[in-house]
Amino acid sequence: MTKSVAITIALMLLLAGGVVGYFITKEQQGLAVEADASQPVAAAPAPVGESNSGTDVVEFSLNDIDGQTRQLSEWQGKGRLINFWATWCAPCRREIPLLKSTQERHAGDDIQVIGIAVDFQEDVEAYAEEAQFNYPILVGQEDAMAAAEDSGVPFVGLPFTLIVAPDGQLLKSHVGEIHQSHIDLIVEVFGGLEGGRYDIESARAKLSKL
Length: 210
Fold this sequence. Notes:
alpha/beta; Glutaredoxin; 7-stranded mixed sheet; 7 helices; 7 strands; 39% helix; globular
């Protein structure tokens, strides 16, 4: 059994304990679709604002790639894209160049990309040498999934991104690959929050289009 298959099985077993997944059938799609183990497991995300702790504020801590404990509040005051990914996840790898470009172009706009690797430490370290990340990478397996759950959003598969306002409030969770159109809308919303054109609820309504 390969490592990627082992991780996928472990994720599915963990999800089965607390998250009820759904699968779009061939009949619903109207297409002949074959299951692909390399694709993220799909499930219905919880509505924004529903939280196990009774708060919309996203906060957790994980070790970074160098083994140092980092807290999400470290980036308080910045709009945050918290991207959960893994080295064995093809859509995750595809979106990394876009996330790097976003960090490079918008760091001066108080926007911070944060990667959460749901993977083995040694695999993340090896991939990081190739990817040359320009944003922080935190690492965890069950701990990373628990961090998402603690934010009030079920961990439903990879890639998975939390969009967090500068004050720490959760604006939107996005399941699936991030594309440039998503980034454009997210940047617009962050700018609207900073400029006073949006409040939290209107920002959430705008991001519901993702």
